[in-house]
């Protein structure tokens, strides 16, 4: 048993699998300090994050990782994976522009990362759009991702292993709350932390659910912000792999803080993109600790309409 986390590892657990059962939860007033601690650790370690992702998202993903303090590597050739992937700190797989060749690289990278004990994160983009996508994601699940992050429709489809017909491509047809039970089920069956993005983000280990309400609606008008969040999650779990629920929740909330700070200076989506990256780079302890405390002191763990800054609460 790990004395810090209280988690007992499963003796025969596959390499790279995040241990279950539930992590001990932080007290409400400690989330801001924890978010800062993880961000500071990320900045000090500058973890190498390999991203096999779609062609639309590479630029924003790389810049978000750099702004947070990580080192991005957008390497996807199957011929390089055996040499490169064992040395990364985490792997992010995004199926946005899926192809047979790309899928082969994803499978090889996920298997290599797992064998090397490196966590990897799956973003099942538009999994409901085709049988090919669904079958690809179901195959990747067998390689034991540490975290799965998607919108509500993606999580609902993946949890049921059946496509949701008439889905809207990469957009969700459901609210994030609609997918909470599906996310818990998917987490239990896959062994992964599951994050459902939306107006409120829900993160679960299959037992407890943590909610994070923050960000700004304008990020929906910037392509690849969801992809960038998934890459940021990979960076955070690379520095805290045994507390992946905490790391995932903090990554989502920190991105939301940066978005809200950025929107204070932005005129629209184009300038928000720039200011979001600047705000993420400039985040400091005072911002995170004060505004997490503000939420819990005045909010008593409830949802306060639209919070200005990061808000994490326990969903029961």
TrEMBL record:
Biological-process GO terms, alphabetical: thiamine diphosphate biosynthetic process; thiamine salvage
Pathway noted in the entry: Cofactor biosynthesis; thiamine diphosphate biosynthesis; 4-methyl-5-(2-phosphoethyl)-thiazole from 5-(2-hydroxyethyl)-4-methylthiazole: step 1/1
Region spans: Disordered: 1-27
Keyword terms, alphabetized: ATP-binding, Kinase, Magnesium, Membrane, Metal-binding, Nucleotide-binding, Thiamine biosynthesis, Transferase, Transmembrane, Transmembrane helix
HAMAP family tied to this protein: Thz_kinase (MF_00228)
Superkingdom in the source lineage: Eukaryota
Requisite cofactors: Mg(2+)
GO MF, one annotated term: magnesium ion binding
Lineage: Eukaryota, Viridiplantae, Streptophyta, Embryophyta, Tracheophyta
Ranges of biased composition (kind: Polar residues): 1-11
Protein purpose: Thiazole kinase involved in thiamine salvage pathway.
Principal EC category: transferase
Family: Belongs to the Thz kinase family.
Segments crossing the lipid bilayer: 217-237, 287-315
EC number from the UniProt entry: 2.7.1.50
Protein name: Hydroxyethylthiazole kinase
Catalytic reaction equation(s): 5-(2-hydroxyethyl)-4-methylthiazole + ATP = 4-methyl-5-(2-phosphooxyethyl)-thiazole + ADP + H(+)
